[in-house]
Design goal:
Largest sheet of chain A: 4 strands, antiparallel
Shape of chain A: elongated
Distance between the termini of chain A: 38 Å
Strand content of chain B: 5-15%
Number of strands of chain A: 7
Order of helices and strands of chain A: HEHHEEEEHEEH
Largest sheet of chain B: 2 strands, antiparallel
Strand content of chain A: 25-35%
Shape of chain B: elongated
Number of helices of chain B: 2
Number of strands of chain B: 2
Low-confidence stretches of chain B: none
Strand order of the largest sheet of chain A: 1-2-3-4
Order of helices and strands of chain B: EHHE
Structural class of chain B: mainly alpha
Number of helices of chain A: 5
Oligomer: heterodimer
């Protein structure tokens, strides 16, 4: 299945941009992942120093290996789940709508959408050292619809995205005004 | 006295592997369903699969000569030297 089927694109609708969080915001997860991968090395060194018999015992040795193996597999699974939740948080901007797809956890997903002509106000902010250095931040959209506030989190180049959304919203408003006449 | 055969732990590990496989497939299903198969997601998925294969191979390599019919005998958990863990 591709994105076009997933969002049930209308016949006249075209995808202008797909926005994901800036990849730099995933770096802390990678650092934590690498550090937790090193934990068993330290634990093995401690066991070897304090209980050297544990790594050669006929019972304890297989138990230690099975536990270490399960630890690493759990770690991979958590990392992959975090990646999926991070990567599938996305905003699809078309010439008609803004669709917010949020993968909250492995078993929780929410999809919200907003007609562009309902956008009343848009602000973009880049706050903090890393956001300023790597130019990422949030775009806040005030709407007249059922969802009063839409936030696009940690997007690359938020000021350009805000301008793009405002341009598309103005175009969509003109289109809807011409349809009413 | 409690005697736990080693293969019990192996079966628990296999049950864990089954859960691991199911959750990994669900994760991949999410990526596929959302049309998120791109270079980045492909690379991360490939890295996770390679690391998993690496861990499973080393687990098998380190445990291939283990006698799984051995039993862990625990006579009194709290008294020193009363079990054959080492």
């Amino acid at each position: 299945m591709n994105l076009i089927n997933f969002i049930h694109k209308k016949s006249y609708e075209k995808i202008v941009k797909t926005v994901r969080r800036d990849p730099i915001t995933f770096v802390p997860y990678i650092i934590v992942f690498l550090l937790t991968m090193l934990v068993p090395v330290g634990v093995l060194w401690l066991i070897n120093t304090m209980f050297p018999g544990l790594l050669v015992g006929t019972i304890s040795y297989p138990l230690v290996v099975l536990f270490a193996s399960a630890y690493y597999l759990c770690l991979f699974l958590f990392f992959y789940s975090y990646f999926v939740a991070f990567y599938l948080d996305m905003w699809v901007i078309t010439n008609d709508r803004l669709i917010d797809v949020r993968q909250i956890s492995l078993f929780a997903k929410s999809i919200a959408e907003l007609d562009l002509y309902q956008i009343q106000d848009a602000t973009s902010d880049v706050k903090g050292f890393f956001p300023s250095v790597f130019n990422y931040g949030n775009v806040n959209l005030q709407t007249a619809g059922s969802v009063p506030k839409f936030i696009i989190y940690n997007t690359p180049d938020p000021h350009a995205l805000r301008q793009l959304i405002l341009d598309l919203a103005a175009e969509d408003k003109r289109y809807h005004a011409s349809q009413k006449k | 006295m409690i005697a736990i055969p080693l293969y019990v732990f192996l079966f628990i590990y296999f049950a864990f592997l089954l859960v691991f496989a199911i959750f990994t497939i669900i994760n991949f299903g999410h990526i596929f369903q959302t049309g998120g198969i791109t270079f980045a997601s492909f690379i991360v998925t490939a890295i996770i699969l390679v690391l998993t294969a690496f861990v499973l191979f080393f687990t098998w390599f380190l445990l291939q000569n283990v006698n799984w019919t051995e039993t862990w005998q625990i006579t009194n958990w709290f008294s020193n030297g009363s079990n054959n863990l080492f």
